[in-house]
Specification:
The complex is a heterodimer of chains A (675) and B (146).
Chain A: H1 2-29, H2 32-61, H3 68-73, H4 80-85, H5 91-112, H6 121-142, H7 166-181, H8 183-195, H9 201-232, H10 242-267, H11 271-294, H12 308-329, H13 346-378, E1 381-383, H14 386-406, H15 417-440, H16 446-477, H17 481-491, H18 493-514, E2 519-525, E3 530-534, E4 540-553, E5 556-567, E6 570-582, E7 594-596, E8 598-601, E9 605-614, E10 621-629, H19 632-649, H20 656-664, H21 668-674
Antiparallel strand pairs in A: 2-10, 3-4, 4-5, 5-6, 6-7, 8-9, 9-10
Helix pairs in contact in A: 1-2, 1-6, 2-5, 2-6, 5-6, 5-7, 6-8, 7-9, 8-9, 8-11, 8-12, 9-10, 9-19, 10-11, 10-13, 11-12, 13-14, 14-16, 15-16, 16-17, 16-18, 16-21, 17-18, 18-19
Chain B: H1 5-31, E1 33-36, H2 38-47, E2 56-62, E3 68-70, E4 75-81, E5 86-92, E6 104-111, E7 117-124
Parallel strand pairs in B: 1-2, 5-7
Antiparallel strand pairs in B: 2-4, 2-6, 3-4, 4-5, 6-7
Classes of the chains: A alpha+beta (675), B alpha+beta (146).
């Protein structure tokens, strides 16, 4: 079966080569039969990659340990659930998943746009085929998942216990879906540049795609944070680790694009910028995969050990030359139709929004690469820690939050003083009241205070938009308020979905600001001994060590320590944290021990207890106890964000009629209320 | 004559960029630390004695059998080597799960003039792997932290 998989990969390689050549020729010569051949090749590639994926999955599930990948990432006693996820636990399987997902998205894009954008689709097929050529070439020439060993080990090495977590089952594919789906907008951008069809047609084709990519990336990032928080046991969810940053970079450029595309649709500005953002997002998604898969940051020396890194680097350079080269070639065709009239306008707010998002991306990019740059330039590696990232990104994030509030309120073209007064009165009041109240209760952290005040401003903006829109529908159509609200959102999904996303962002910012009040202590307790921990709310947690027990469970040997927890004298539960020593199928220890964290979570704060180990041969235990305020808001903020994205994406109201209606009444219902 | 909107935006943008440039520079200056191997550290010390007591990161491997733990004071001592140069390390706090004999560690702290390295943080790279290549950074994962 793995032979079939291997053959399928090779055929994919040649079909993809064919499709890329034929697609470009079809684009230039407008020969329909060649265009059809290129498009069909994409579907064929998809079928072949499905065969390859099934072959690998079968090898994993049947424990074919003669296959190197299977032996390296699974074992007989690995639960089936995680055997599935070991498909993408390693580099080789990830590459296959990448290629499969690119071809899936490519097929869907071609099906959805069947009969439309006739001048673009051959180029789109060709560009996607090149992406697949790259991934399949990397597999067959450097990192083949079907590679066999010279012998058959009796059991595999098993999956790293830290990856045996539900978060890790869903987090990587979500990120991959986000990374890969950017290939489609990239392909359309390249097609638009090549064909010279640079009107808004290609933008309409990819508007939804970019949102899909953005949604997957957002979910992937939040799931990754959740995994780090519950599994790694260091008490946080974001540490500006190179790998985290790698997923954050394309998210920033995608977010910028989702905003700037509105300016191009409404005002015919920023055409070059938008193409640049799409190309940049694609490059950053490849770069993200490159970072995670090559280890170039953590260890420069490991770079030479895996030539997969070189494949990525070469592809990255080629894609950059292609994308930006074409952009430079078509530069004169991409002049703006109008000029910016006033900085105090929707366009102005969006321009600053884009500027800040891109500046954040640049700062994160350079700080992440700083160890490599310093070693290359000065011969000494200098590393920068999370404080440097925070120093730059906290003020930028706050500026962005401010713009999140301003953007939706301000009129297109040029805001009049009346427009400003009418729109800003209530949100600014909310902001001031929040700031004054927090100052009154002596919130000690200045940045956090600003974050909550600005959060109140954005919430004020969003609520005002919903209220005014609903009232307008009520007055115009005599609808009941709830019906008016539902129809309001239903008829303007992109706009109101966007506002829901903004609410999600406020929740996330509120959670981040809460980190300023985190508290951490380490204690050693004998059974029966207690420790008191103060929370930022002034509560007292009384934590009593119960004892240490040891037992075997599933595929691991567990040492568990339990504590009884009282909050202000009231019992809230017994919390158990574990040290796990995973075992192979012969009962021998495998991997280093891992930790299962005990977390008591509510909307206000998390009590996060890590059992760090017992004193040799006794039940005296060492604990690290962390109080993490508002962590809950990260997960639910992520959910709200995703819900907003889904509302925006939901099919139905995004057709040309809805789009033209929006253009006809640019300020929407708010203008009618004001009139 | 009133300023054009474009000019205003460029001025505003330049202000943002200048601020960020300044913040990045000061961030790197304040938190940037040298990342050295024991051999490189020894070379620096020989060249410049004032390099004692400067905050650095050192990447090295734990010498087999050198770890001692004192649970009561939560003190861990071990020797860290890159094969040619070895330094004794003292660390107060909880060691990560992955910290055992012969793992690669990154310690952040200061080399005292008595030749011991006082670490304030201790990171252990995964001795086994997410990826098979030995010594390679764990793919897709942050390192275990303390």
């Amino acid at each position: 079966m793995t032979d079939i998989g291997n053959i399928a990969l090779w055929i994919t390689f040649f079909v993809a080569l064919w499709a890329s050549v034929v697609g470009f020729i079809a684009g230039r010569t407008h020969r329909p039969e060649l265009a059809r051949s290129a498009e069909r090749s994409i579907f064929v590639m998809w079928g072949l990659l499905v065969v390859a994926a099934v072959a690998l999955m079968r090898a994993l599930l049947t424990h074919d340990f003669n296959v190197e990948y299977v032996a390296a990432y699974t074992s007989r006693n690995l639960p089936v659930f995680y055997t599935w996820s070991s498909f993408y636990a390693g580099q080789k399987g990830s590459l296959l998943l990448w290629a499969l997902v690119v071809s899936t998205f490519g097929s869907v894009a071609l099906l959805v746009n069947r009969g439309k954008y006739k001048e673009l689709t051959p180029y789109v097929a060709a560009t996607l085929a090149i992406v697949v050529v790259f991934f399949v070439a990397t597999m067959v020439f450097a990192s083949n998942p079907f590679e066999r060993l010279g012998f058959t080990p009796p059991d595999g090495r098993g999956l790293n216990p830290q990856l045996q977590n539900p978060g890790m089952v869903f987090h990587p594919p979500m990120l991959y879906l986000g990374y890969t789906s950017i290939s489609v907008p990239f392909a359309f951008a390249v097609a638009a540049l090549l064909s010279g069809r640079l009107d808004t047609g290609w933008l309409h084709a990819i508007r939804r795609w970019t949102l899909v990519s953005w949604l997957f990336l957002s979910c992937g990032i939040v799931l990754g944070m959740w995994w780090a928080y519950v599994e790694l046991g260091w008490g946080g969810y974001w540490a500006w680790d190179p790998v985290e940053n790698a997923s954050f970079l394309p998210w920033l450029t995608m977010t910028a694009f989702l905003h700037s595309v509105m300016i191009q649709e409404k005002r015919g500005m920023l055409k070059k910028w938008n193409i640049g953002l799409v190309v940049g997002s694609f490059l950053l998604s490849i770069f993200g995969t490159f970072l995670t898969r090559s280890g170039v940051i953590s260890s420069v020396h490991s770079f030479s050990q895996s030539n997969v890194g070189w494949f990525f680097l070469v592809f990255l350079v080629l894609a950059a030359v292609l994308g930006f080269g074409l952009l430079a070639w078509r530069w004169p065709m991409l002049e703006a139709e109008v000029k910016l009239e006033s900085v105090v306008s929707r366009e102005g707010a969006f321009l600053f929004n884009n500027l800040i998002l891109i500046v954040i991306a640049f700062a994160v990019f350079w700080l992440t690469l700083f160890p490599v740059i310093s070693e290359a330039l000065r011969g000494t590696k200098v590393t920068v820690g999370p404080p440097a990232f925070n120093l730059v990104n906290v003020p930028l994030g706050l500026a962005l939050l401010l713009l999140t509030g301003i953007g939706p309120l301000i009129a297109w073209r040029r805001a009049s003083p009346e427009n400003l007064k009418r729109q800003f009165l209530w949100p600014v009041t909310a902001m001031v009241v929040t700031a004054v109240s927090l100052a009154a209760i002596r919130m000690s952290d200045w940045y956090s205070l600003v974050a909550y005040a600005l959060g109140a401003f954005v919430v004020g903006t969003v609520v005002q938009e919903f209220v005014r829109g609903t009232l307008a529908r009520h007055h115009l159509h005599g609808e009941f308020y709830p019906l008016a609200l539902v129809r309001l959102v239903g008829r303007n999904r992109r706009r109101y979905g966007g506002y829901v996303v903004h609410l999600g962002m406020v929740m996330l910012f509120a959670a981040f600001a809460g980190l300023a009040f985190k508290r951490e202590t380490e204690v050693t307790l004998k059974p029966g001994q207690s420790v008191d921990v103060k929370s930022p709310y002034g509560w007292t947690y009384h934590i009593t060590h119960q004892g240490v027990s040891q037992y075997e469970e599933l595929n691991r040997y567990v040492t568990a320590a339990s504590v009884d927890v009282l909050r202000n004298g009231k019992y809230i539960g017994t919390m158990k944290s574990e040290k796990r020593q995973h075992l192979d199928s012969l009962g021998r220890p495998t991997f280093e021990p891992s930790t299962a964290v005990a977390i008591h979570s509510d909307a206000r704060e998390d009590l996060y207890i890590v059992f760090a180990g017992a004193v040799q041969g006794t039940e005296e235990a060492v604990y690290r106890i962390t109080i993490n305020p508002l962590v809950w808001w990260v997960w639910y903020g992520g959910l709200v964000l995703a819900a907003g994205g889904l509302i925006t994406l939901w099919p139905g109201a995004q057709g040309p009629t809805a789009a033209s209606r929006r253009r006809a009444e640019p300020a929407g219902y708010v203008a009618q209320v004001g009139a | 004559m009133p300023m054009r909107a474009r000019t205003k935006f460029i001025i505003g943008g330049s202000l943002v960029l200048a601020t960020v440039g300044y913040l990045m520079a000061s961030g790197i200056k304040e938190t940037g630390v040298y990342y050295l191997t024991p051999t490189e550290l020894a070379a620096r010390i020989t060249a410049d004695h004032s390099f004692y007591n400067v905050g650095i990161k050192m990447g090295a491997r734990v010498v087999k059998g050198s770890i001692t733990r004192d649970v009561a004071s939560q003190t861990i001592t071990f020797r860290a080597t890159d094969g040619t140069q070895t330094y004794p390390v003292v660390y107060h706090g909880l060691a990560p799960d992955t910290f055992t004999d012969e793992v690669d560690v990154v310690v952040e702290g200061r080399l005292q003039s008595d030749g011991t390295f006082h670490a304030t943080t201790l990171l252990a790279k995964c001795g086994s792997r997410y990826e098979q290549v030995p010594g390679q950074a764990p793919a897709g994962m942050p390192q275990t932290r303390t």
